[in-house]
Structure formats: structure tokens, C-alpha cells
Amino acid sequence: MPESKATIVAIAHQLGLSKTTVSDALNGTGRVSPATVARVRDAAEEAGYVVNRAARALRQKRAGAVGIHLPAGSRELDFYMQFTFGVSDVVGEADLDLSLLHRGRGEERGFHLDGALVLDPTPEDPVLAALLRARVPVVTVGRHRGAGAEQVAGMIRARHEELQREALATLPPRGRRRPVFLGIDEGLPASWALEARAAYEAWCQEHDVEPWVVEVSPELRIPELSDLVGSVVSDGADAIVCCAQGYAAQSQSILQGLGLEPAGTWI
Which domain holds residue 19? Predict the structure, then answer.
């Protein structure tokens, strides 16, 4: 079959099937037997037929794309990059595109999306507000505590507070009474960071320990972190509670460099 005739109509004529049956077989819709699906797809491949995703999306009233919105400053934290790569793999397997939504997107612009993931939304996030106004289905990673929270379609929530408490529970048995909390500064007001700090401060109150919070930038470099760790150790810290996972591994290496063994009992 010439390439110019590689259409659904041509394939249907070749196989003696209806156009609807061929379309359903190619798109995975309708009630078509596995044997017929295999026949149609083999014929389509032989003919060089390529699915027009834009046309299919228009027929199905779908955009064929999912959006993802990351908080400011997130590029410095490995979690957000790994999460985005994972989402990209999943939407690719679903034959969808992934669109990165920019924080400065104008409110007057629309969204051509089937849905969106918003990571660690702030109460007044303009992109999330615009998505909700446009009635785009939104799933947040972390609780949205601002206006329109009732419009959020779903939420993915990690056990940040519970996990923080599990980690803090290991301090008293090791005789640690002066833990310092390395939190994330206001440049990244993520829900997980706020929950981790709240859990630390509540634990301190319950155990009659004076809270010691040091806010650090998500863009802190290793030399700066090294100076900070050395400073808090000199000031009497006997444990370091890190809000960001990456800082925990780096701080452990720094403590080893200071000759504090075993460094793993500090973090």
C-alpha cells in the first residue's frame, strides 16, 4: 500500500473492516477482539500509518498533555528533579506530553492540559490559582492551604511529620540533648519543610529541649555548609537534624572530616 494512502479508511478497506473498528483497534478503545487488534496494527505498521495525536486528542476532547509546576528554588533539591523524571516516564508510557509550567505565567493565558501536578503549593501560588480558575483538574503533592483548596481533585501526601518524629525518637537513647535543626529558608516555603520544622519544634517542647533552628538556603554550597556544620558543633550541638535529604549526606561527610566518629550517630 503506498504511504500516501496510509489512512484509517484505506486500512479498513484492505482488511474488510469498518472505519470505526480500525480506529478503535488503533486507539485501544471500543470492544475489538485481540485477534482483530493484532491484524489492524500489523497492517498499519506495514502501511507506515502514523497516529495523528493532535487530531485524536481533538476528537476525544483531550489535550494529550499533563502539566507540572515546581516551587521556586526547587532545582537545587534532588527530590524535585527525580520526581519530575518519574512523572515524565509515566506520562510518556501513557502517550502523553509533559509541560513544565512557569511560575511567571500570566493569569490571562489559558492552559491546554488534561490535568496538572502542583508540587508543594504555597497558599497564594499564582499558577495554581490560574489552573483552578481554568478548571484544569489539579493534583497537589502536599496540602494546598490557600483559596480554592476544595477544588483540588486530589493530593499526594508523604508522612513527613511521622518520619521526622521517628528520626527524633532515636536521639534520647543516644544521649543527644542539643539537636540543631537545619531548615529551609523562606525562599522555599514548601509544605514538607514546614511540617518537618513543626515536628521538630513539637518534639523539643515535649522533651524540654530548647529549639535551635538554623534556616539555610536550598542553594547552599558545600563550603558554606561545611562552615555552618563546624560552627554549630563548636556552639555545642550534639546532633544535626536536616530538613533536606541532600544536606544530611553532605553533613555526615563533613562531620567525618572533623574527626567526629561515628558521624552517622549525629545525623
Answer: 3-51
**Helix extents (H) in the chain:** 8-15, 19-27, 34-47, 53-59, 78-93, 126-133, 160-168, 191-206, 222-234, 245-257
Q: Residue 59 belongs to what H/E stretch? A: helix 53-59
Kindly report, residue by residue over 117-156, the tens digit of the pLDDT: 998 887 888 899 999 998 899 999 888 878 888 899 998 8
pLDDT tens profile 93-125? 877 889 988 755 555 567 889 899 998 887 888
Q: CA 131 → CA 37, 62, 101, 117, distances in Å? A: 38, 16, 10, 10
pLDDT cut 70: percent of the chain above it: 85
- The CATH code of the domain that includes 146 is 3.40.50.2300
Distinct helix (H) and strand (E) counts, the chain: 10, 8
Q: What is the C-alpha separation between 227 and 195, in angstroms, rounded? A: 26
| 252 within some domain | yes
Grid cell digits, residue 29: 478503545
> What amino acid is encoded at 128 in this protein?
L
Q: Considering the entire predicted model, what is its pTM?
A: 0.59
> 239 and 174 in one domain?
yes
